[in-house]
Amino acid sequence: MRPERRAALRGLYAVTPGEADDARLFASVSAVLAGGARLVQYRDKALDPARRLDQARGIAALCREHGALFIVNDDLALALAVGADGVHLGREDGEVAAARAAWPGGLLGVSCYDRPSLAAAAAAAGADYVGIGSVFASAVKPGAVHAPLEALGEAGRRSGLPVAAIGGIDESNAAQAVAAGADMIAVITALFAAPDPRAAARALSRPFEPDERSHVRTQPAAL
Hints:
- The protein has 223 residues and is α/β, with parallel strands linked by helices.
- The chain has one domain (3-208): TIM Barrel (Alpha-Beta Barrel).
- 40% of the residues lie in helices and 16% in strands.
- It has ten helices and eight strands.
- It has helices spanning 3-8, 22-34, 49-66, 76-81, 96-102, 116-125, 150-159, 174-180, 189-192, 197-205; strands at 11-15, 39-42, 69-73, 86-89, 107-111, 129-133, 163-166, 184-187.
- It has an eight-stranded parallel β-barrel, surrounded by seven helices.
- Helix 2 (22-34) packs parallel to helix 3 (49-66), helix 2 packs parallel to helix 10 and helix 6 (116-125) packs parallel to helix 7 (150-159).
- The relative contact order is 0.16.
């Protein structure tokens, strides 16, 4: 992976909640980007395809304005249609190698749950980063399998790729995930359900700041 591409895969990774109100969704995404989110993933399981296309286009534009990466959850066709930077795939979202063949230049993230062994397979198939979680109890997926913090570092060592921690991350535990090996922290509730999403994003971005040397292992290179 090119150094500048790897450096971009670091920091606060905002994952959108299902939201039918476009204005509210765009305002919240704008706020978390202003607060420091470096990546945004559009995730919606309920709206019809036309509405999802409109929302994805709107968020893609906001990410471009803020210089952040835009990732689409599950849907490679939608990611391509809106000019996203990449797509994130779970275990039921298609073969990683097929997605890489269909989109050679796109960023490809792969969920590896609590199994670092899957991270090595994802890397071999062409992934750019892997997701590990749920690292803490998750309000979004209360039944999700628990991934110990140690799995973050192991996934990075096995794959050689950046690792995104997900599940139950908030201001109280974000630094623990970063110290354990997370290059990114993927957050939904602690951002989008916060009274002030911009302030929440600032707080969740602090473990990645240079002065947080006690929590962060390395700092990203300038893009």
